[in-house]
Specification:
Elements (H helix, E strand, L loop, with lengths): L11 E3 L16 E9 L13 E9 L10 E5 L10 E10 L3 E10 L11 E4 L4 E4 L3 E8 L4 E9 L5 E7 L3 E5 L3 E3 L5 E8 L6 E10 L2 E12 L13 E6 L5 E2 L2 E9 L4 E8 L2 E2 L9 E6 L6 E11 L4 E3 L3 E5 L12 E8 L4 E18 L6 E2 L4 E12 L7 E9 L5 E3 L3 E4 L4
Parallel strand pairs: 9-16, 18-25
Antiparallel strand pairs: 1-2, 2-5, 3-4, 3-6, 6-7, 8-10, 10-14, 11-13, 11-15, 12-14, 15-16, 17-19, 19-22, 20-21, 20-23, 23-24, 23-25, 26-27, 27-28, 27-29, 27-30, 30-31, 30-32
Length: 426
């Protein structure tokens, strides 16, 4: 009642602390909890009924006498007039787990008057949860490009619902089980931690579990290892081409024959050939080239090729390049003259015509770009002066590039300028 002295009105204080056997020891400084219970006062110190109880002041400290002191919390009273044997309880948080705490409580009325403190009760603060296994957990040696996992078990040791999460730095990661929510004492959650090494060094870092203001840590460690190298059998042949002289070239005297070659492992050598026979010795290092004295070869058309090999014995032969040797003065080295081009286009093809000034064969090179990429085939080998070549299988409403090709009996090749046409729409 207003004006009444409430000092020493708290008749009983009891602290109910249940310390479970932790699965993971909590390091000093980790946030812990204590559950305090006490019996509410019912009278003022003069014996009159207590009718204006406002709150309680709960004092706690590791010192022997917590009350009065700077560490306290205010707990509101649910009623201004508690009935007999009314029990109050409050959970203290943010404490140091494993530390011994002394706790006392006082009552405060509506006017702010405060009773003397109750007797002191003592207990050790505990964590809200525990984690197993403890200490340092070694993931062992793990090959680069793979991973290893270990399972940690989080247990509710504080009661109520404990919600939290686990975290760890790379190359470790949380594979599953986080975040977690443990609904009652004794409930557990498995948390899988994954180690994915990126280097061949040993890595150690902290694995931290956090829930309700409490933390618990373990050390995780592991080493990266290099997997044994297994060299697969090489069955891929090199890629090779004759790059000079160009097809259709007329050559005299001494010329350089060169080529390019690549391989998925490495090119061991390139052998140039003239009409199927070796031209010079095999070239084992870039640049791949040999000198050809054309005066030792009969005038006329000849085919140059290159054969590339790798260390596994895979071989590849380049497409043939036809050139004309013309060391004697009387040989014909003049290519046909292409003229009078004509064109007829449908939605899926075209017919191309032209004339030459001397009999020659008939072929068209075509494609979506000026790189062409396609030749009509088979080659019309008949030597004529009036030419006609059809192209089919084309896409409708599409632009195509093309040029005409004619080779005479002496092997002289003529190629027209570039032309283009657009197929008709559907």
């Amino acid at each position: 009642m207003p004006g009444k002295n409430v000092r020493s009105a708290v008749t009983c204080v009891g602290l109910a602390f249940i310390l479970s056997e932790g699965l993971l020891a909590t390091a000093p400084g980790t946030a812990g909890i204590l559950d305090a219970t006490w019996t509410a006062p019912t009278t003022n110190t003069d014996g009159s009924p207590l009718t204006d109880l406002a709150s309680y002041r709960l004092y706690y400290a590791t010192a022997s006498s917590p009350c009065p002191g700077s560490s306290s919390v205010q707990v509101a009273s649910p009623t201004p007039s508690p009935g007999p044997n009314t029990t109050m309880s409050f959970r203290l948080t943010g404490l140091t787990s494993g530390a011994l705490y002394n706790v006392a409580v006082s009552a405060v009325d509506a006017a702010g008057s405060q009773s003397s403190c109750s007797s002191i009760a003592s207990a050790m603060a505990r964590a809200e949860f525990a984690v197993s296994p403890t200490g340092t957990v070694n993931f062992g040696s793990v090959n680069l490009g793979s991973f290893a996992e270990q399972t940690f078990t989080v247990s509710n040791t504080g009661g109520g619902t404990v919600s939290g999460s686990a975290s760890v730095a790379a190359p470790f990661s949380i594979a599953s089980g986080s975040p977690f929510a443990l609904s009652a004492v004794g409930t557990t959650q498995a948390v899988k931690v994954r180690f994915t090494p990126t280097t061949t060094t040993t890595v150690s870092t902290s694995l931290t579990f956090t829930a309700g203001g409490s933390t618990s840590s373990a050390i995780v460690t592991g080493s990266g290892a290099t997997s044994p190298t297994v060299t697969p059998s090489d069955t891929t042949a090199p890629t090779v081409a004759v790059t000079a002289p160009a097809a259709g070239t007329t050559v005299t005297s001494t010329v350089v024959v060169s080529g390019s070659a690549t391989d998925n492992v490495g090119v061991a050598g390139v052998q140039f050939k003239l009409d199927g026979a070796n031209l010079g010795a095999e070239v084992t290092t870039p640049p791949y080239a040999v000198t050809w004295n054309t005066t030792t070869t009969a005038d006329g058309g000849h085919v140059l090729t290159a054969v590339a090999r790798d260390a596994a014995g895979n071989r590849a032969t380049s497409p043939g390049v036809t050139v004309t040797v013309a060391n004697a003065g009387g040989i014909n080295v003049t290519a046909p003259l292409i003229s009078k081009a004509s064109l007829s286009v449908t939605k899926s093809g075209a017919t191309i015509g032209w004339t030459t000034n001397k009999p020659s064969d008939t072929q068209v090179e075509y494609g979506l770009t000026t790189s062409y990429g396609s030749l009509t085939g088979p080659l019309k080998t008949a030597l004529v002066t009036s030419h006609s070549q059809g192209i089919d299988g084309l896409a409708p409403n599409t632009w195509y590039q093309f040029r005409m090709r004619s080779r005479d009996a002496a092997g002289n090749l003529a190629m027209s300028a570039n032309y283009k046409f657009k197929t008709r729409p559907q």
